[in-house]
Amino acid sequence: MIIRRRRSVRSAALAAALLTVGFATVGVLPAQADPSPSAGVPSSTASAAPTEAGAPEAPKVDLVLDVSGSMGISDIDGKSRMAVAQRSIDDVIDALPPEAEFGIRTLGATYPVSDKTDGCKDTKVLYPVGRTDKVEAKTAVATLRPTGWTPIGLALRGAAQDLGSGQATRRVVLITDGEDDCAPPDPCDVARELAAQGVHLVVDTLGLAHDDKVRQQLLCIANATGGSYTDVRTQQQLTDRVKQLVTRSDTSYRATPANVTGTDQCATAPLLTPGVYADREKFSEHRVYRVPVHAGQELRASVSVTPDRAVALDYGVLLRATDAAGQELVRGTDAGSGRTDVASTGLRWSAADAPSGSPSGGSSASSPSGAGAGARTVCLVVSNSFAGQAGVQNDPGLPLELTVDVANASPAPAGPALGLGRGWIMLLVLTGAGLLTGLVWGWIARWRISVWREN
């Protein structure tokens, strides 16, 4: 009896070991790896985006701070709203990139609540937009005390003037705890007014008071300019959000794309090499660009369109690759409903994907002037379904950023024979493991029955 038990234990251990080896064999079967390490990753040529002569224009950020009397209320982390805002702004100033142009404008900082006539005109520059002396800027912020009224509409107009014009990203960050109590002008109307000008000016709003009226007004301001709204609950949240917005502007500065102007047909479209490009596209417009792709290469492209003014809901962005005759090769679409910071999409197309009847990629005759011998011209068509809200101007078009890369094409997947062979190997291993498992468990069952009968 004891001998049988020992044998059974040894047999069970052996069976378990065999099962482990069998499944381990399945686990180490060679997997089909992507032999192209660059697949899905832009080639090194894409990192060298073409730039215009001279240094790019630095980003500009104007922080508009509410210093009205209600900012003295202590309801955030046990501190007053003013103290929380001052501490967060100090942290943001410390983290500013050296090339950023940063400024601060106040509203309600001078005239007391008892003086509404002058208090509703009370908005001024605390620190001018430009390269920041951090000590001076922080000292200016430290002198602020909650004082007067909340003329948000006038402050937004003033901030737009502070930032001036230019091609770089211009961002207004509004920190307030209340709705405008000095209208007119209504801050939503001012935001739509700025958006209708068609300049790339974004207003991001941060609310320190959790009131439905305040929230609706701040959402209206942000939506009209393609910005964002944040309901602030803690000091850390305020600090992190403002830093994020400033960093976003700095990122745009470091990756300044080259300006290009697309056309309405492929024959006259600009010829692009790998890089990042900027253009403007009107509502529901089509913009066309050309890219030469050689045999054995793969085109990878993406496009982002920024709604920098009030647009209607239900919109989308479409990117298509066509041949010179207009036949579609591949497309990528993005559609949405509601407000987003950007709408984008992308596509990939390999010269090996061309149908057999299409012009050969190696035929220089099919390549337009400037495309290079042996290259096939692919036309990139950017379309959008944006529509402006009432009173919004169509000119200039929406900011568009196009990224183009041409890399070695990814090898085709393994043929049927190789795939079938690997499938048979795995099937045999799994069948063997299942058969072995059945035999072992059958033997154990018979042994248990025999032991039961003997007892």
UniProtKB/TrEMBL annotation:
Highest rank taxon of the organism: Bacteria
Transmembrane segments annotated in the record for this chain: 423-444
Stretch list, region Disordered: 33-57, 350-369
InterPro entries documented for this protein: CLCR, TAT_signal, VWF_A, vWFA_dom_sf
Record's keyword terms, sorted: Membrane, Signal, Transmembrane, Transmembrane helix
Keyword Acyltransferase: no
Signal peptide from the UniProt entry: 1-33
Domain VWFA, first and last residues per copy: 60-249
Cited Pfam families: VWA_2
Matches recorded under SUPFAM superfamilies: vWA-like
Biased composition (Low complexity): 35-57
SMART domains documented for this protein: VWA
Protein name: Alpha-1-antitrypsin
Biological source species: Streptomyces tateyamensis
